[in-house]
Amino acid sequence: MNEAEDAQGVQGVRDATGVIKLLLAEDQGMMRGALALLLGLEDDFEIVAQLGNGDEIVPRALETRPDVALLDIELPGRSGLDAAGALREALPECQVLILTTFGRPGYLRRAMEAGAAGFLVKDGPVEELAVAIRRVLAGERVIDPGLAAAALSAGPNPLTQRERDVLSAAVDGATVADIAAKVHLSPATVRNYLSSAIGKTQTRNRMEAVRAARQNGWL
């Protein structure tokens, strides 16, 4: 293997200039600006989009064609996890790296199911993030090691999609009627899903079930 081939293997697929184009989705403006500034100091990185809303991720990615998308999880509009799956379908050549404050095993499992190539928590140094970006572009999977071990011991998400939908709609203390209207189900069906979710989370009521599901990253 010559030097050019070796460099391509390390760097992954880049444009003709060797620049890695990055899309950054983070709802906190100060954090987003700081990450963009620090990553922009890397000679081979270019920030092509900075977003604060999850609904903007796929349209802007199709417009700017990033090599790697750095996505927070909890975003206004579509969550980073939901956007990750949609982005992988719309632009499969773009690698997705989840970067979040919430290092929860359930989130990791959902990210991997959505096709994300990496999952890191935000408390690491930016140098490690830069290395992770290059690694996922080279075809590797990068996961916070502590979180990977926790995910293996935590087991799969016990909630069905409908149970997750109903619990998500109950986050703000909504009534059964409100939840039913939001998820387009009958009140009786909503009660059944809530009861099932409460049993699976081993909690006493819907609000405890919501808290338990969120703490485990199931919502």
UniProtKB/TrEMBL annotation:
It comes from the Bacteria. The modification 4-aspartylphosphate is found at residue 72. The keyword Phosphoprotein applies. The keyword Transmembrane helix does not apply. Residues 152-217 form the HTH luxR-type domain. SMART domains: HTH_LUXR, REC. InterPro entries: CheY-like_superfamily, Sig_transdc_resp-reg_C-effctor, Sig_transdc_resp-reg_receiver, Tscrpt_reg_LuxR_C, WalR-like. Residues 21-137 form the Response regulatory domain. Keywords: DNA-binding, Phosphoprotein. It holds the Pfam family GerE. Gene3D superfamilies: 3.40.50.2300. This is Response regulator transcription factor. It comes from Streptomyces rhizosphaericus.
